[in-house]
Amino acid sequence: xxxxxxxxxxxxxxxxYTIAYIDRTxxxxxxxxxSRDLHMNSTQAGDAAGVFxxxxxxxxxxxxxxxxxWSAKRFVAxxxxxxxxxxxxCGLVHTGREFWVMRLLLGVAEGGVWxxxxxxLSHWFPRAERARANALWMLCLPAAVIFSSPLSGWxxxxxxxxxxxxxxxxxxxxxxxxxxxxxxxxxxxxxxxSREEREYLETTxxxxxxxxxxxxxxxxWRVLLRPQVLVLVAIxxxxxxxxxxxxxxxxxxxxxxxxxxTQAVSILFMVPYxxxxxxxxxxxxxxxxxxxxxxxxxxxxxxxxxFILASVLESGRSPVLxxxxxxxxxxGGYAALGPFWAIPTETLPPRAAGSAMGLINAIGNLGGYFxxxxxxxxxxxxxxxxxxxxxxxxxxxxxxxxxxxxHRSRATKRAESS
Length: 418
Prior knowledge:
Elements: H1 4-25, H2 27-37, H3 42-50, H4 52-55, H5 60-90, H6 96-110, H7 113-122, H8 127-138, H9 140-158, H10 161-169, H11 171-182, H12 195-212, H13 220-224, H14 227-255, H15 262-290, H16 294-314, H17 319-335, H18 337-347, H19 350-364, H20 367-382, H21 386-402, H22 410-417
Helix pairs in contact: 1-5, 1-7, 1-8, 1-9, 1-11, 2-3, 2-10, 2-14, 3-6, 3-20, 5-6, 5-7, 5-10, 5-11, 5-19, 7-19, 8-15, 8-18, 9-15, 14-15, 14-19, 14-20, 14-21, 15-17, 16-17, 16-21, 20-21
């Protein structure tokens, strides 16, 4: 059976969110320069980098709801325009306060994209494929770093951080036309897939929805307060704290080695994210083959926690080995993402899953605020990153332990009964 949706939907969604992630994270390479120009210390810079995630909360639940009940395609199209304007605005500021405000607004504009895209993928990929579909789309996270780091480093070396933020901030306007042309909300709306594939998808997805359909009349607030959802929120908070604390401050850690140029830092910054891309695909593929989610999430988080801690312990003796361990550790949290985001759609009522994923992403992504802030604060207090990265490690290990509290998905139950 042809699988046209894999080669049409995933690449378009992949590039769309790659652009979003670039616009969110490109300040990691520019942080030391804009901090100097805007007169911010490490704590203030960490606050400005992380305030994005307070704005990010605003459209999470509404985004999941609108994608489920209206149109993921149209909602994301609106947000492409909004976040492009805010991303360009980040390069036009003149004070630390103005930069803080634009980062907050950028968070608001990007806030609904993640749950809306997860809802879109759940309309096109059945459970047996969902972790892989999620992971292939979420490869945009490391890909954004891999592809943008050399370019961003070159722009910084040739021009400055303002040119960097404005040039990369304009990319959403270019991708809007592609998004509107290629994306459809449901298989029944798509004229580009075969009749056999459309019938297969509609039959399979309808059967999966019917398994959870009897709970669709459960009040939204009760679904959002289920222990399963609250545990997922806590795990995701630990995961994002580790991932973003690592992401925003790793270039500064590398820059502390005085012999490295800006271009060399940008190239070394790519290395852990190349490993991350490989780990995400392998872990998600194995999760789908085994029909198991919890263990694969726990494995990724545990790898991240253990290797980041090992890197910290080794940092005083061998910088090269410490960097190698740090590269492996950075893979862990990202490798957990594909299986993690398969869990809500496999354990929650279909019409409420979008809003639940919005809540998980909204509160969980506050880790993107607290992770960089804690790293910046501890670096300011101690003069190094040892204690800061030890805290990130502890958070990832705590998240791994929390997976034992999750209910098994239906995919896991079917695998165990077969």
